[in-house]
Amino acid sequence: MDGSDTTAERPATPASPRMPGRSMRNIALLAMCQALTQSSNTLMFASSALAVLTIVSPDTRMWANLPVTMQHLGVMLSVFPASMLMMRRGRRFGFRVGSTMGMTGALLAVIGLGLGSFPLMCVGGLFLGNAIANMQLYRFAAVELAPPIFRAQTISYVTAGGVLAGIIGPAMARFTPDLWLPTFQASFACVIVLHAIVFVIHGFIDYPEVKAIDTEGPQRPLLQIITQPTYMVAASGGMIAFGVMSFVMAASPLAIVQCGLSRTEAPITIFVHVMGMFVPSFFTGHLINRFGIFNVMIAGSALLVGGVAVALLGISEWHFRGALGLNGVGWNFLFVGATTLLTTTYRPAERGKAQAFNDFMVFGTTTLASIMASVVLELEGWAVLNYIALALVLVALAVIGGFRLRRPGRA
């Protein structure tokens, strides 16, 4: 792979390929790290805004999502340092730094909630963002743990670790808030435990050694890499996938309560959403190999549109579950497709800056979406929020469809 824009879009696969056993072991362990880190992220999404409502005054409730927004900001600020650190010190060292930051952030959230300190909870979210930035690099690390012909499958399998997160995270969000007072403090304590387990697991994964060719080989300027049409399509697909997903999911716990449903409905809806995000990962890689990256990305965009349509049809618990479920599946197809496409646009020595810039843009968009979610919900309502999401998805369809039409030979 030379990183040129003419790289074949559809990964070549032999008949009935079989991944080496060592690679499968490493991918399984990395998928477990994905599951536990994503569980902590899901727990934070489901609990943070509701926890803030217990310590802030009614006139500041529109900022209830600020700790989650600070988490996204932490991701955006951390992707470049995290990626470049791994280029120099290796994946294991970098991922363990992320786990340590996650434990620190969760501890600050525990203390902040105990003291009734909204600012301290926000600072905790910033630290947790570093842990999530590292988690987002799992999908790129997966590519390095198996032969190149398994590129789409490794990304898909590691992402599938989120299926377990779809069980652990919402279950914790449902059963831990009232374990002790103040409410939700036990939830944040669980996040500390999850990151500690991940720290240990990374010691058992056989990450490749950092080689001079990977850090000192021929490199193009970053501007030349990111202005490739294929890179721009991949990055914009990832930005819109994560932006729309975060915009809708961040607002949904508050919207559920505003619409008169029980607080306990929020974890159930988040469970459906997270399962939608990650269950398809067991076969998304195979769909990409069979139908092509762009067709899968377009299908993902269409499913996101379907999620908006269901949300606009009503405000019962089943409307929320259906809307968030479709939103999750759409995110999976669009984001896994975009990530697979991105890996065809850079050389080994360029991977740090190419991946970091992509994730900086993706999580910059996610940060903005998270900031706007609770504000739009509070000022304009759930319906307007979904119309905005629809507009963003239509942009993705236009970009991907236009690129596809200009290159009819690429599926």
Overview in brief:
With 411 residues, the protein is mainly α. It has 17 helices and no strands. The chain has helices at 21-53, 66-89, 91-115, 118-136, 138-143, 151-159, 162-175, 185-201, 212-216, 222-226, 229-258, 265-278, 281-291, 293-313, 317-342, 351-379, 382-406.
- The CATH topology label is Growth Hormone, Chain: A
Tell me the series of helices and strands, N- to C-terminal. HHHHHHHHHHHHHHHHH
Q: Any idea what the CATH superfamily is called?
A: MFS general substrate transporter like domains
Structural class: mainly alpha
Would you mind describing this structure in some detail?
It is a single chain. The protein has a single domain, classed as MFS general substrate transporter like domains (Growth Hormone, Chain: A). The model is unreliable at 4-15 (pLDDT under 50). The chain is globular. Helices cover 76% and strands 0% of the residues. It is mainly alpha-helical. Helix 6 (151-159) packs antiparallel against helix 15 (317-342).
